[in-house]
Design brief:
Length: 349
């Protein structure tokens, strides 16, 4: 059994995919990855490889920076008889670090092993950096605005985090990304994390979420805003389509075993309703409520605004105390350098 000619690691930078050959001329292993010493924003990584076997070998080993990611690799037999392995968002909170990184991918099938190495600099992180405005609403007072910066500290499906700032009823907060900017890329581009939690009924089944919704807007300059459609009324409870503050937060920057905050959740949380808590399906990704810049016609954004619902009545009675913001994370991002000073990140010009 022989690994063919490549293991591929992709780093998608907004609308741009960076690629670099592993060496000159034909090589037993090619790598598509950040160019050595290049600057990239923090982002999910993809692994793609194939090998000369139609079966699905038990001997397959896939290692990324010392982390065993074999269980995150999907194998599929191709029409040419080879087997392709792919993995999306194959990294957790402890895999890469801010600043200088060495990316090492090792794939082993049987007695054949291929290794590829790349060096790059991760600029900043995927989280909002500055609170530029905070207008507290009625009933606010829990937490500080700075608690909305940095990564999420989610407590899972059935418990809400206390590392939040409560906006209060009708409160508003504006966050700015400074080292990186959110960019329109494949799928959703950023996620908003609140301390939503699911309830459990008497039959130990998952019931409706306890949600405190908020309306989300984005801006490039902090002046002109584009607002995502949000059903911010009681008739839409408890899922409030298009709003934030509806889905639980699974990522926790203090727990390397949880997904990274920039890894999107493709699972539909509504599928959990009625499921026994003793038989929960696996859920990948950071959780939270994700948004796609294309929906509001932007290719990039630097500011995110959240407006808390102003009504008190919640999905199960008088329980809405206002949106509790944990964090905002970019899923697709570009480095925010602007050498010509025109206010537009160089990477999206």
């Amino acid at each position: 059994m022989q690994i063919r000619d490549f293991v591929r690691v992709l780093a998608t930078v907004g609308l741009l995919t960076l690629a670099a050959a592993a060496g000159c001329g034909p090589a037993p292993l090619r790598v598509f990855a950040p160019v050595n010493q290049s600057q990239l924003p923090w982002m999910p990584l993809f692994v793609d490889f194939d090998f000369a076997a139609a079966g699905l070998p038990e001997t397959l080993v896939v290692d990324l920076n010392g982390h065993d990611i074999r269980d995150q690799i999907q194998l599929e037999v191709q029409p040419n008889g080879r087997t392709r392995g792919t993995g999306e968002f194959v990294w957790g909170a402890g895999l890469l670090t801010q600043g200088a990184n060495t990316l090492t991918v090792q794939v082993q099938v049987g007695e054949t092993t291929r290794t590829a190495v790349r060096h790059f600099e991760a600029v900043g992180d995927p989280y909002a950096d500055v609170v530029t405005q905070f207008v507290p609403g009625s009933g606010s007072g829990f937490g500080l605005p700075a608690d909305a910066l940095g990564g999420p500290r989610g407590a899972g499906l059935f418990e809400g985090s206390l590392d939040v700032v409560s906006l209060g009823l009708g409160g508003v907060i504006v966050l700015e990304f400074t080292d990186n900017a959110i960019a329109d890329g494949p799928g959703d581009d950023f996620a908003v994390f609140e301390n939503t939690l699911f309830s459990i009924d008497v039959a130990l089944q998952v019931s409706d979420p306890f949600s405190e919704p908020g309306r989300v807007s984005v801006s490039q300059d902090g002046v002109v805003w584009s607002t995502f459609p949000c059903a911010l009324d009681l008739a839409a409870a408890p899922w409030y389509p298009g709003c934030a503050g509806v889905r639980p937060t699974l990522a926790n920057v203090d727990d390397a075993a949880t997904p990274h905050g920039s890894v999107p959740t493709l699972f539909d949380f509504m599928d959990l309703l009625g499921v026994s808590v003793l038989a929960l399906p696996p859920i990948d990704g950071a959780g939270g409520d994700a948004f796609d810049l294309a929906e509001v016609g932007l290719t990039w954004a630097r500011f995110v605004r959240i407006e808390s619902a102003a009504f008190v009545d919640g999905p199960v009675g008088v329980d809405n105390q206002g949106f509790d913001l944990d964090a905002v994370a970019a899923i697709n991002a570009v480095v925010a350098t602007d050498e010509d000073g025109n206010g537009v990140p160089d990477a999206v010009e």
